[in-house]
Amino acid sequence: MKKRKVLFLDRDGVINNNKAYYIYKPEDFQLNDGVIEALKQLQKAGFEFIIVSNQSGIAREVCSIWDVEKLHVYISKLFLHEDIHILEYYYCTHHPDVSMCLCRKPSPLLFEKAIARFNIDATTSWMIGDQMRDIEAAANAGIKGILVEPNKNLLYVLPTILTHD
Hints:
The protein is of the alpha/beta class. The protein has 5 helices and 5 strands, in the order E-H-E-H-E-H-E-H-E-H.
């Protein structure tokens, strides 16, 4: 069976604007510029997509797992409208001030779960994140990472990914 080539994406700050710290309501979700166009080009190049994020608002009781899941359904529908499919959402529900865990980035656990479940080739996969912990988690799982400035247009990362493909 051929291994998959995946682009892992952090959610808040990479896919959507994170000026409001906890994004969990569809009406607060604002897609960042260039996301649709970038994902379409990467999909044409053979990439599939998985979103990996820390969602500490759950541990802090700002929102519930149901709220986060509802937003993920909303995001998936937005992408499907553009013929972009998200394989899966992996997220940590913890925060060190409230609850300890093994899954919070920079831990590679969520990446390792995805790699095992979806038969992913880590050596041809990438992570785009807006925090160093995103890049560290990916590196710890053998995945190349690109650190981006929060809420910036994603089109500028395409040459890096596509020329190293």
